[in-house]
């Protein structure tokens, strides 16, 4: 176990003063359950995952605001949503070969837990928390900069993230505001088969409605969602100015 921890520390670029923190970050509840631990929650990585998620969100948000001061809130939300998503963290965890170091129960291991997206993403966040608790926010921030924010270094990286799902951003925003879930409907399709143009309506309840056209239903729905996001933002600004 000691050699494995040393190998992982080398990948992380940090040597722990308290290695028990790293061990806990790597411990899935299934490992403790098989050992009939009386308080398995005190030794698994779920609390560290909770803390790591908060640290990751803060560091990523701060870095994006500082690096792109002219970016709109919608753009920042898209970029952050990508960088903290389970899919992206799963990629980063696999790049570190984090699955090899996890402590899993035999059943979880047999069922492919070392490659499972959610499990690896959670462990990645737990490692962030362990780095923070052992070395402080600067150490955790350096790790996030190297392993997560590197995906924003090149102009083409930013451009590709800019094409992310406006529908996902709208979904998150409506949930945060306690609004109905967005609904989408194709209201018109025109033009020849080889050059169809689609008009899609995005609707949040009865108040927030927008339409957009595009060469595909997907493109049109993305644009319609972006316009509803702008309507919600304008309403927030108006409400703030009158309060």
Describe the structure in your own words.
The chain has helices at residues 2-12, 19-25, 29-33, 46-67, 73-83, 86-95, 106-110, 117-135, 137-147, 155-162, 166-177, 217-242; strands at 183-190, 197-204, 208-214. A hairpin with a 6-residue loop joins strand 1 (183-190) and strand 2. Helix 4 (46-67) packs across helix 8 (117-135) and helix 11 (166-177) runs parallel beside helix 12 (217-242). A three-stranded antiparallel β-sheet has the order 1-2-3, with helices on one face. It folds into two domains: 2-162, Orthogonal Bundle (Ribonuclease iii, N-terminal Endonuclease Domain, Chain A), CATH 1.10.1520; 166-242, Double Stranded RNA Binding Domain (2-Layer Sandwich). It is elongated. The protein is 60% helix and 9% strand. By secondary structure, it is mainly alpha-helical. The longest helix has 26 residues, at 217-242.
Give keywords.
243 residues; mainly alpha; Ribonuclease iii, N-terminal Endonuclease Domain, Chain A; Double Stranded RNA Binding Domain; three-stranded antiparallel β-sheet; 60% helix; elongated
Strand residues, percent? 5-15%
CATH class membership of the largest domain = Mainly Alpha
Number of helices: 12
Task: Name the poorly predicted regions.
Answer: none
CATH topology category name of the largest domain = Ribonuclease iii, N-terminal Endonuclease Domain, Chain A
- Secondary-structure element string: HHHHHHHHHHHEEEH
> What is the CATH superfamily of the largest domain?
Ribonuclease III domain
């Amino acid at each position: 176990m000691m050699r494995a921890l040393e190998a992982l520390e080398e990948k992380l670029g940090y040597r722990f003063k308290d290695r028990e923190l790293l061990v806990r970050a790597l411990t899935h509840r299934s490992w403790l359950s098989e050992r009939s631990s009386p308080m398995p929650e005190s030794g698994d990585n779920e609390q560290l995952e909770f803390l790591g998620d908060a640290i990751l969100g803060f560091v990523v948000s701060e870095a994006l605001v500082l690096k792109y001061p002219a970016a709109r809130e919608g753009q920042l939300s898209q970029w952050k949503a990508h960088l903290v998503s389970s899919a992206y963290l799963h990629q980063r965890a696999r790049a570190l070969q984090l699955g090899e170091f996890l402590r899993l129960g035999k059943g979880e291991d047999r069922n492919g837990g070392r490659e499972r997206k959610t499990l690896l993403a959670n462990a990645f966040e737990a490692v962030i928390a362990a780095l923070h608790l052992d070395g402080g926010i600067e150490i955790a921030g350096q790790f996030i900069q190297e392993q997560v924010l590197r995906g924003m270094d090149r102009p083409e990286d930013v451009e590709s993230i800019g094409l992310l799902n406006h529908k996902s951003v709208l979904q998150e925003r409506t949930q945060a505001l306690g609004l109905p879930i967005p609904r989408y409907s194709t209201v018109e399709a025109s033009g020849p088969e080889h050059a169809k143009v689609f008009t899609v309506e995005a609707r949040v309840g009865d108040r927030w409605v927008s339409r957009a056209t595009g060469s595909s239903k997907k493109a049109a729905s993305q644009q319609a969602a972006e316009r509803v996001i702008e309507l919600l933002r304008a309403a927030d600004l108006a409400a703030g100015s009158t309060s």
